[in-house]
C-alpha cells in the first residue's frame, strides 16, 4: 500500500494516521522511537509495518505480483502499491462518505500541524504533497504509470522500473479485483492485530 491506502486503513485517529504516513520513513526497531515520538504515533507506525508484512504474503498481492513480467519482479511491490492507491482513489465513494478532496486536505493539514515530528525526508515532501495534491491525483488512471516512470528516473538502474506502469495498465481489471480482495482481507486482519497489540501479545510491526 502507498500513502493514501495506509492512511485510510489506519482509521480516523490522528496519531494512527500520522503513524501511517511516517511508516515508510522511520527505520529500525520502534523502541528507538520511544521518547522521540508519542506512543500512539509509534503504534500507528507498527500498524503500517504490519500491513506491509501481511499484504506481502497475502493471496491477493501474490496474484498481483504474478501478473508482472520477470524483469519487474524485483520492483513488483513498489509498482503494485502505487496501483492499489489508484484503485482506492478511483473507487473512493465506496470506502468513505467524505469527498476525497477534503480527506486529502485533512491529511496535508495533519502533516503541517505535526511538522516537528516528521523525519527530514517526509518534511521535505509535505509541501509538494499539498501543492500537487498527491492523494487526489491518484484517482486518474494515468497517474500510476506516470509516478512509476518518474520514480524510475531517480533510480541508479532505471530499467528496473521503467515501463512497469505501462505493463500493469495491461492487467488493469485483474489488478483492480486483486485490490478489492486485499482490502477485504485487511478489513478482517487489522482488528485482530489491534486486539493482539492491546492485549500485549507480540505482533508483527513492533
Gist?
By secondary structure, this protein is mostly helical. The chain is 64% helix and 0% strand. It has one domain (3-24, 38-198).
Can you offer a commentary on this structure?
This protein is mostly helical. It has one domain. The protein is 64% helix and 0% strand. It contains 11 helices and no strands. The protein has helices at residues 3-10, 14-22, 39-56, 59-66, 76-90, 100-113, 120-131, 134-137, 143-153, 164-169, 172-198. 35% of the residues are buried.
Order of helices and strands: HHHHHHHHHHH
Radius of gyration: 17 Å
Q: What portion of residues belong to β-strands?
A: under 5%
Overall morphology: globular
User: Please, what is the oligomeric state?
Assistant: single chain
Q: Total number of helical segments?
A: 11
Q: Major sheet, described briefly? A: none
Class from helix and strand fractions? mainly alpha
Give the end-to-end Cα distance, rounded to a whole number of Å.
Answer: 18 Å
Helix content: 55-70%
pLDDT below 50 for ≥5 consecutive residues: which ranges? Answer: none
Question: Please, what is the average pLDDT?
Answer: 91
The count of domains is 1
Overall number of strands: 0
What labels describe this entry?
single chain; mainly alpha
Question: How would you summarize the topology of this molecule?
Answer:
Layout: H1 3-10, H2 14-22, H3 39-56, H4 59-66, H5 76-90, H6 100-113, H7 120-131, H8 134-137, H9 143-153, H10 164-169, H11 172-198
Helix pairs in contact: 1-2, 2-3, 3-11, 4-11, 5-9, 6-7
